[in-house]
């Protein structure tokens, strides 16, 4: 987490109040809180502040233009919201919104992996200040990822073909050409390719802040616009473009007790991609009749906001959920499990992005090839006296590596999983074959039977008698036979 600071204009301080600012400072463990003034640069430097939440009279102030040169703070790590959001609001709403944005500011680590690119337009003023570069919030890697399906998904999703494969995972090959729509990130299964100003961790922290500090029914508004005013109970999560909104963000909002709203603003610079993503986002929470509220422009948003948020039970998202190796997939599965505790689920409804796998027990010999082939660790083979092959369906991303590598053609991916499929399934089982000499386990009984039939069909009856012997005993038996032949004079 970064050292984060909170700056407020004089008017914002009057509206929010010092007591709330003090609470936010302590609860969010901020490094610095102050009213905007001439002294702030020295204070920010002394406190080693690397990210900022600024509440002012609207717009980006001129002093922020030099913040990267004077303080080394990335412009992407500065969040600016208007004080009008807090006018006439309750103390709980003000505290929850400030906590959400303060925690979000602390989780801006990834912006420091973004490299500056040449400015698309250079003004006389920027030339005087030697500002011939700009920072775009193009997607960057949260951590190394080697799941082939995940990497290919990001590469194929980019409308400008800018995402390339690297040893660490997907990467934007030409950042200066990237529109920073984030569609490649939203199309992923796991979310290792993150928009640095709207990451999975930031969304989770924001949701938890609202759940913890605001007890009334509330909505979470994902938008790429900056509304001048908002109504009580609507918490805007402003992002570069809603094309980067992942399904798990929507489901996690609902499961936590917040009504999700997705809005493509009328001023969105990558509107085509935003509208495409808006259509792809599930229309309802899988297994329920809870609809996802969508707005294609500001006019539609006004109509959507007329409907009050639903009164759902509140749940904080466990912090270890997005830290799991499956990241957004873990968040999605948590959301469905949590919602199942609050509402009756239609077990036949499908879950987009989660795939169902079927194994033919008559063909499967439990050889374990699928276990070794899957990069998501979906299949597992365990047992002592009996072997059991299980598939943890919720984590299947449909790579079909198990299908392509199965030597018996026993595995198939049937499409999206239903709610009833979201569990660990027992696919096949058999006894463990043991060495007839020493009793050591040597593998699946079905593999032995299969190998026996193949050897006999090819005329190797003699070799087939050793398929129930472990390698060590087999070596001893063959050595014994060789010695007997040697001693008897046979070559």
Distance from first to last alpha carbon: 74 Å
Number of helices: 18
Order of strands, main sheet, comes to 2-1-3-4
Main sheet overview: 4 strands, parallel
Number of strands: 20
Cα shape: elongated
Q: Can you tell me the residue ranges where pLDDT is under 50 for at least 5 consecutive residues?
A: none
Task: Tag the structure with descriptive keywords.
33% helix, alpha/beta, four-stranded parallel β-sheet, 20 strands, single chain, 491 residues, 18 helices
Walk me through the structure.
- The chain is α/β, with parallel strands linked by helices and 491 residues long.
- Helices cover 33% and strands 20% of the residues.
- It contains 18 helices and 20 strands.
- It is elongated and about 105 Å long.
- The mean pLDDT is 91.
Quick overview:
The chain is α/β, with parallel strands linked by helices and 491 residues long. 33% of the residues lie in helices and 20% in strands.
SSE blueprint:
Elements lengths: L3 E5 L1 H7 L1 H10 L4 E4 L4 H7 L4 E6 L10 H5 L6 E5 L8 H16 L10 E2 L5 H5 L4 E2 L5 E2 L6 H10 L5 E4 L2 E4 L10 H4 L6 E2 L5 H14 L5 E5 L10 E5 L8 H10 L2 E5 L7 H10 L12 E3 L2 H7 L23 H13 L9 E10 L9 H5 L5 E4 L3 E7 L8 H5 L5 E8 L5 E11 L6 E4 H13 L3 H4 L6 H17 L4
Parallel strand pairs: 1-2, 1-3, 3-4, 11-12, 11-13, 13-14
Antiparallel strand pairs: 5-6, 7-10, 8-9, 15-18, 16-17, 17-19, 19-20
């Amino acid at each position: 987490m970064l050292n984060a600071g909170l700056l407020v204009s004089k008017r914002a301080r009057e509206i929010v109040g010092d007591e709330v600012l003090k609470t936010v400072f302590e609860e969010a463990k901020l490094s610095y809180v102050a009213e905007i003034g001439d002294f702030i640069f020295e204070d920010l430097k002394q406190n080693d502040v690397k990210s900022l939440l600024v509440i002012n009279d609207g717009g980006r102030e001129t002093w922020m233009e030099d913040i990267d040169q004077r303080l080394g703070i990335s412009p992407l790590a500065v969040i600016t919201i208007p004080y009008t959001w807090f006018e006439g609001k309750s103390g709980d709403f003000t505290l929850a919104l400030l906590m959400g944005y303060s925690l979000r500011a602390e989780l801006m680590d990834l912006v420091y992996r973004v490299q500056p690119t040449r400015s698309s337009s250079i003004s006389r003023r920027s030339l005087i200040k030697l500002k011939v570069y700009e920072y775009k919030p193009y997607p960057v890697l949260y951590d190394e990822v080697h799941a082939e399906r995940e990497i290919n998904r990001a590469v194929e999703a980019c409308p400008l073909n800018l995402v390339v494969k690297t040893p660490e995972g997907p990467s934007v090959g030409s950042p200066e050409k990237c529109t920073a729509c984030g569609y490649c990130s939203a199309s992923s299964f796991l979310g290792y390719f993150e928009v640095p100003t709207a990451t999975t961790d930031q969304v989770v922290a924001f949701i938890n802040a609202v759940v913890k500090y605001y007890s009334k029914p509330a909505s979470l508004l994902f938008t790429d616009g900056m509304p001048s005013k908002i109504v009580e109970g609507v918490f805007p999560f402003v992002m570069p473009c809603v094309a980067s909104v992942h399904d798990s963000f929507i489901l996690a909002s609902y499961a936590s007790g917040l009504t999700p709203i997705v809005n493509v603003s009328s001023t969105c610079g990558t509107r085509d991609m935003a509208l495409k993503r808006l259509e792809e986002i599930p229309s309802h929470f899988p297994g329920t009749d809870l609809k996802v509220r969508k707005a294609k422009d500001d006019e539609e948003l006004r109509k959507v906001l007329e409907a009050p948020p639903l009164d759902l039970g509140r749940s904080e998202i466990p912090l270890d959920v997005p830290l799991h190796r499956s990241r957004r997939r873990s968040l999605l599965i948590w959301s469905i499990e949590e919602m199942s505790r609050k509402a009756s689920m239609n077990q036949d409804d499908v879950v987009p992005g989660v795939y169902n796998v079927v194994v033919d027990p008559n063909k499967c010999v439990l050889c374990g090839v699928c276990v070794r082939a899957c990069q998501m660790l979906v299949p597992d083979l365990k047992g002592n006296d009996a072997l059991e092959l299980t598939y943890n369906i919720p984590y299947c991303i449909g790579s079909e590596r198990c299908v392509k590598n199965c030597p018996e053609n026993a595995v198939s991916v049937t499409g999206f999983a239903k709610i009833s499929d979201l569990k660990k399934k027992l696919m096949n089982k058999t006894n463990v074959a043991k060495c007839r000499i020493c009793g050591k386990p040597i593998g699946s009984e079905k593999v032995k039977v299969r190998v026996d039939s193949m050897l006999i069909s090819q005329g190797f009856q003699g070799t087939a008698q050793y398929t129930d012997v472990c390698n060590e005993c087999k070596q001893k038996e063959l050595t014994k036979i060789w010695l007997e032949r040697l001693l008897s004079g046979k070559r």
